[in-house]
Each structure stands twice: as C-alpha cells, then as structure tokens.
Amino acid sequence: MKRVTALLLIFVLCLSMFAACSKKPSQETKTPDTGKQTNQDKEPAKDKEPAGDSTEDVATDEEITLSIYAQYADDDTKVPYDYAVEELKKAYPNVTLKLEVQAQDDGQKLMTYAATGNLPDIYQVALAQIENFKQSGNIMVLNDIAKATGFEDKVFDSAKNILYNEDGNIYAFPYAGNEYVVWYYNKAIFEKYNVEVPKTFDQLLEAIQIFRDNDIIPMSIFGAEGWITAAMYDVIATRWDAGGIAKLDDGKGSASEDAYLNAAKMMNTLVKAGLFQSSASSTNYDQAAQLFLNGESAMFINGQWFITDAAATLGDDVDWMYYPSYDEASYEAGKAVWSGGGAAAGYAVNPDSQHAELAAEVAAFISEKYCEAKVKYRGTPLVALDVDVQPEMEFPAMMQKLQADIPNQTSITKFAWHLTNAIFKTAIEDQTKYLLVEDYSPEEFITEINNALAQ
Fold first, then answer.
1. CB 320 within 8 A of CB 91
2. Which domains does the chain have, with CATH numbers?
3. Is the pTM of this model over 0.85?
4. Long-range CB contact pairs, 108-117, < 8 A, 24+
C-alpha cells in the first residue's frame, strides 16, 4: 500500500512540474520592430530587431543612460542642446544623456565609429552619412516612431524634403529647415574706408585692395573645413549657372562647362588678390568667426545660423549682402539664386543600441525641442517643425530681411553635407580647399573634379 501511495505522489509531482514549466513568464516583453533596412542589391533587407527590450525601457522607471554624439561648440549648438536636456528631464526623468561633442571633421569620426561598431545610441547625421549607413546597416528606419510620436505631423510642408530620404524612409529627425549660405559684412568697416557694397567681382577686387592697404582682412574663412570652401565656390559658380555644385552632384553637368571653369578662375583671382587671411587653409571655425566679430576682417561667409551671434556682438554694424557677380545685370538676376538648401538630416539612431526604441523616441523629442529653442532663444524661424512657442526676442534685422527675401527666391543648391555622390563630395571639399592656395590652377581643379565625377 505504501508503494502505491508513493507512486501516486510521484505522479502528482511530475504533473505539477510539467504544468509549471509550460507557463510563460508573467512579464514577457515583446521586442519591437525597428524597421532597420539596407539598400544592398537594391532589395529591402529584413527588419532588424533592437538589441535591448526597449518597450520595457519606456514603460518602467529604470535609470537608463543613452550616449549621444552632437554639436556643442557655440551658442547656436549649445543653447538648443541644453534646452532639450532640461526638457528631457521632465518628459523622461529616468533617461540621462551622455554627450560626446561632435568633431569638426566633416563626419570622419562618425564614419570611423560606424566602421568599428562603436556608434553611440543617438547621433547627428548628414545626408552623406545616411546614404553610407543605409548600405552598412548602421542607421535605424524611423517611420513608425515618427508617426507614433506625432513628429511627422508637425513637419512643415516646406521641410518635407528634409524629413524623407529619396527612398521614402525617415532615417533622421530634422530640426533645421532649409538653410542658406550668407555673405556677411561689417558695415562700420565699409563706411570707415568708404567702400561700397560690391555688386560685381571687379568692385569686390577694388574693395579687397582698399582693405589690404589698411591692414584689414577682406574676408575670413574657416578653410580647415571643406564644406565652407565648397560653399564659397558654389556661391561663385551659381552666378553663371543656378545649378551650382548640386547640378554636378545630380549628374546633370560637367565641370568642364564654362560656369565651373569661370568659378574656379574667379576664386583663384580672389585668392591671389588677398581676399582671405594668410592661414585660411588651416583656420578653424572659432578662429575665423573671431576675426570677423573682433573687427579684424570686413567680411565673413557662413550659414544663416550665424545671424544671431553676429547681431549680438556687432549690433547694427553687421548685415548680409547679395552675392557679387560678373556684371550688374547678372547681380540683379542672381538675387533670386542662393547657395545652401536642405536634405534629409538630423538626429539618427543606432539600430544596435541596447535601447533602440527608447533612443528613437528621445531623438524625436530632442529634435522637436531644438526647434523650440531656435525659435525662442536663437531668433530664427527657419526650423523644420511647426512648434507652438513664441520668440523671447524680436528676430534680428538680418533674419527679417532674409525671411522677406525667401518668397522671391527661384533656386537653391546644396550644402556639401547634402551631396549624395560620396566621391564627388570628397573631391569638391578637397579641391576647393586647394583653391585657397595661389599656385593651384583652375585647370587642375577642373581635371580633378571631372575625374571624381567619372568614377
């Protein structure tokens, strides 16, 4: 009898153990679909799931640190970032951002991080890196997050080209709208030496001579960065062909065309005349900006994002001018033709992040707060999102002037970071840097650009 009882007990225990083993954990978390894709062989890749249980990250109070790679160099980059971080503390109190300041190296460090598998959770990205990372699988598709967070609905219609990549996907949350290459000048210096704002290149050459005779640098440029030398060349090239470097990037032209050769020759002429400081090729942004803000240079070329800082330092003594051209008729016509533009760019997410979905939500949040900060504190309405905030200051006169001019514009080109042909992008940045050297000939420049376009 004891043996039968024992056997019955064993049988009951086995049934209990089997039932227990068949139950699912009570806190099982579904792994979200990140939508990570590549463009290899022009076939959509299978979506890759994030490395961590990111849905649980959002739902719990677990303390999480996300690494972020972002610009943090001047007020135009520090103010929006600091504002976004403070707002993040309210919306995501369990999330801390660990900032690595973005190098001023045209994205080379970011490319190295991607190649070595060391990308941060969130990173600022330009179109050139997006195209590269699509191929390597180092960037997350953000379509679903853009919809779920409401980010997509807030983007201005005029900025849709900045939100969507050419393949129809969203790879980064933008915060800047279409932007412009602006030719700044110090009105006080011009007035002191009785120099008229140049409309033609001949008048510009006369101004250069006057400034040089009085130990004033005519124009400071941060030639250590290839995007600004490419922008300078583009400004000149668009006086002959509105397509500028964008036309070459799109494969619709040749560098041998008159417009591009004329631009190279004119840039060479201006360099030989002494337009830039002697150390132009090695000067970084901070150094070049200080030369202008300190009154050591009469002119400066940069994006429109510099307007607030310039106005804060120089007040009514600073303004922007339309780009000079080869004659007054083309100068007037060229007022509607601008260098600059916009393309898919902004905050992107590493699909291999341990907290990929949370990182994507935070990236969308930060980008929206950047827009708010730029409107509230930086005096610019040129943002990607329609945000419900009011500026704490009146927009600077230069910004109002630019805003009034935008409806009259008929074309805009591309910044170097928006170029899609990676070989051409590298070439135009490198070769325009070389144009800062007097002995580098326009013919050499054209040959090298054509070689790049042929690859």
1. no
2. 50-176+344-377 (3.40.190.10), 179-341+402-454 (3.40.190.10)
3. no
4. 110/69, 113/69, 114/138, 117/352
